[in-house]
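Researcher: I'd like a candidate sequence for this fold, 261 residues long. If you have to choose between options at a position, lean toward the conservative one.
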C-alpha cells in the first residue's frame, strides 16, 4: 500500500533536505500556477498554435513562417514577460541559498526561476529562453521586447544589424539542442545524489532522459507532478499534486524562508 501523503511529504523533505548534490528538472507544470499554460491545458494560448508547424527549417526557409512566429510572439510574449514566479520557483531559489543544490535544468523558456532569485550559474535553460532574440548569422543576443515592437509596428521580417535572420532564442522543433548545456545537464544528472522532477510529463527528449542517467548513477529519484509520468515506476517517491503546494509543504518541513520575489 502507498504510504500516506504526510509520510511521503516527510520522506521527500528528508531526501531533498539531505541532498548534497541536488539536481532539479523543471517543466511547464511548475509555471502553470504563474498563469502560463502547459501544452496540455485545454483552451490555453499554446493550443491555438501548433509549434510543430513552426519547425526550425520552415523558419529559416519561409518569410511567411517567420511572420507567423512573430505574430504568435505578439500573443505569447507579453504574458511570459509579465509573469511572476510562484511558490514552486521561490522554494527552489531558497534551496539554492540553503546549499546542496547543484543545478536546476529547466525545459521552460519563461525565465521565472531567475525572477524568483535562482542564480544564472545554477541554471541550465535547455530549451533556451523566450525573453531574448538571437541572430542566426552572427549569434548576437538582444531583448525580445524591442524586436516584437518592430514587428508590431509593421516590420514583417525583422533582421539583425548584420542582416541575419532574428529568431526568438528558444529551441524550435527540428533545431539542434545546445551542445554545451545538454552535455552539462547529463553530467550533473550523473553526479546528483537526489534528482527531483517537477511539473514535467517527461515525454520531451533529451531532457526526459536525465532521470534515467541519474538513477543509473545511483541517485534517488523524486517526482512531483499532477499526472503519471513514464518514470513513476523508477522513482523512489512520487508526489501527485500541485507543484507550488507540494514544494511549499516541503519548504515548511525544512524551515526554509522564501523571498518575496
Ligand atoms: P508538458 O506540458 O509536457 O507537461 C507538463 C506536466 O506538468 C504535465 O504532466 C502536467 O500534468 C503537469 N502539471 C501542470 N501543472 C502542474 C502543477 N501546477 N503542478 C504539478 N504538475 C503540473 O511540459 P514539459 O514536460 O515541460 O514539456 C513540454 C515542452 O513545452 C517543453 O519543451 C517546454 O520547453 C515547453 N513549454 C514551456 C513553457 C514555459 O516556459 N512555461 C510552457 C509550455 C510549454
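Model: Candidate sequence:
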Amino acid at each position: 500500500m502507498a504510504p500516506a501523503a504526510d509520510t511521503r511529504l516527510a520522506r521527500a523533505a528528508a531526501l531533498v533536505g539531505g541532498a548534497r548534490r541536488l539536481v532539479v528538472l523543471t517543466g511547464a507544470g511548475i509555471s502553470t500556477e504563474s498563469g502560463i499554460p502547459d501544452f496540455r491545458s485545454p483552451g490555453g494560448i499554446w493550443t491555438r498554435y501548433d509549434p510543430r508547424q513552426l519547425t526550425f527549417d520552415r523558419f529559416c526557409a519561409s518569410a511567411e513562417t517567420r511572420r507567423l512566429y512573430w505574430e504568435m510572439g505578439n500573443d505569447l510574449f507579453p504574458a511570459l514577460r509579465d509573469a511572476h514566479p510562484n511558490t514552486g520557483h521561490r522554494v527552489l531559489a531558497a534551496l539554492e541559498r540553503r546549499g546542496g543544490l547543484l543545478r536546476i535544468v529547466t525545459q521552460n523558456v519563461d525565465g521565472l526561476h531567475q525572477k524568483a532569485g535562482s542564480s544564472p550559474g545554477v541554471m541550465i535553460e535547455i530549451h533556451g529562453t523566450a525573453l531574448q532574440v538571437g541572430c542566426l548569422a552572427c549569434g548576437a543576443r538582444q531583448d525580445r521586447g524591442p524586436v516584437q515592437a518592430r514587428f508590431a509596428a509593421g516590420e514583417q521580417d525583422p533582421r539583425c544589424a548584420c542582416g541575419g535572420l532574428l529568431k526568438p532564442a528558444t529551441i524550435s522543433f527540428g533545431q539542434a539542442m545546445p551542445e554545451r548545456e545538454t552535455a552539462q545537464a547529463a553530467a550533473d544528472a550523473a553526479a546528483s545524489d537526489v534528482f527531483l522532477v517537477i511539473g514535467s510529463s517527461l515525454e520531451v527528449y533529451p531532457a526526459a532522459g536525465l532521470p534515467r542517467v541519474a538513477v543509473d548513477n545511483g541517485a534517488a529519484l523524486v517526482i512531483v507532478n499532477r499526472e503519471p509520468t513514464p518514470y513513476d515506476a523508477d522513482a523512489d517517491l512520487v508526489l501527485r499534486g500541485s507543484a507550488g503546494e507540494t514544494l511549499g509543504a516541503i519548504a515548511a518541513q525544512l524551515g526554509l524562508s522564501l523571498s518575496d520575489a
